[in-house]
Design brief:
Blueprint: E1 4-6, H1 10-20, H2 26-44, E2 50-56, E3 61-67, E4 71-77, H3 84-90, E5 95-96, E6 98-103, E7 110-116, E8 125-129, E9 132-133, H4 137-148, E10 153-157, E11 160-161, H5 163-172, E12 178-180, E13 182-183, E14 186-187, E15 193-194, H6 200-205
Helix pairs in contact: 1-2, 2-3
Bound molecules: 1-O-pyrophosphono-5-O-phosphono-alpha-D-ribofuranose and uracil.
Uracil binds next to α6.
Length: about 210
């Protein structure tokens, strides 16, 4: 069963439309990515557990709440790092793991070149981030690695997903919900998402 959630709030839709526009420059693309990430993270953390704490306001003592779970963010290098600082601004206590993968342009299979994850993944709420879910190979490989290292409570956050990637990911990792701003039409023969937004890494970093 697909655990696909399309977060199609009007603000998310309009920012994504500007990101898709080929005329949007790198600086604006990065800013929109950051704003979109904030809106999406706000939604996907809605059910995170809280614990009560006592706090002294300028007027009196009261009971407040803070997150009671540890959070681990895992961007898939490179493009996922474009979403990292925003999530860290919102959840400053989060730990960060990095998984380096690139897609072989011929086979479209992910090639791993870096992995460093924090310890104690077992109880953590893990957010795997990458703007693009195309064939699904990169997200599947990253999730394999996280699970191998003990991660269990994983959510995958992307911006644009292709039906092919959603199917492949959901088949391999049916327990992991996917959150995306858009479910696009299909992949082209080079494995790019249509209509998509082009190469996310190139548009973030200006390469
Ligand atoms: C892009 C994107 C994903 C991957 C998606 O990365 O950021 O990681 O492709 O494609 P898939 O679902 O078919 O695996 P890319 O390999 O271009 O590397 P980059 O982030 O370094 O640009
Ligand atoms: N990776 C990207 O950056 N864009 C796509 O459309 C597919 C994979």
């Amino acid at each position: 069963m697909e655990r696909l959630n399309v977060l199609d709030h009007p603000l998310i839709r309009s920012k994504l439309t500007r990101m898709r526009d080929a005329r949007t420059d790198n600086e604006t693309f990065r800013r929109l990515l950051s704003e979109l990430t904030a809106l999406m993270v706000y939604e996907i953390t809605r059910d995170y557990p809280l614990r009560k704490v006592e706090v002294e306001t300028p007027l009196e003592r009261t009971t407040g709440e803070i997150l009671s779970t540890s959070v681990v963010l895992v961007p898939i290098l490179r493009a996922g790092t474009g979403m990292l600082s925003t999530v860290l601004d919102l959840i400053p206590t989060a730990k960060v793991g990095h998984i380096g993968l690139y897609r072989d342009p011929k086979t479209l299979r992910p090639v791993e070149y870096y992995c460093k994850l924090p310890p104690d993944l077992k109880e953590a709420e893990i957010i795997l981030v990458d703007p693009m879910l195309a064939t699904g190979g990169s997200a599947i490989a990253a999730t394999d690695i996280i699970k191998r290292e003990g991660g269990r409570k994983i959510r995958f956050l992307c911006l644009v997903a292709a039906p092919e990637g959603v199917k492949a990911y959901s088949t391999t990792h049916p327990d992991v919900p996917i959150y995306t701003a858009a479910l696009d039409r299909r992949l082209n023969e080079d494995g790019y998402i249509l209509p998509g937004l082009g190469d996310a890494g190139d548009r973030i970093f200006g390469t």
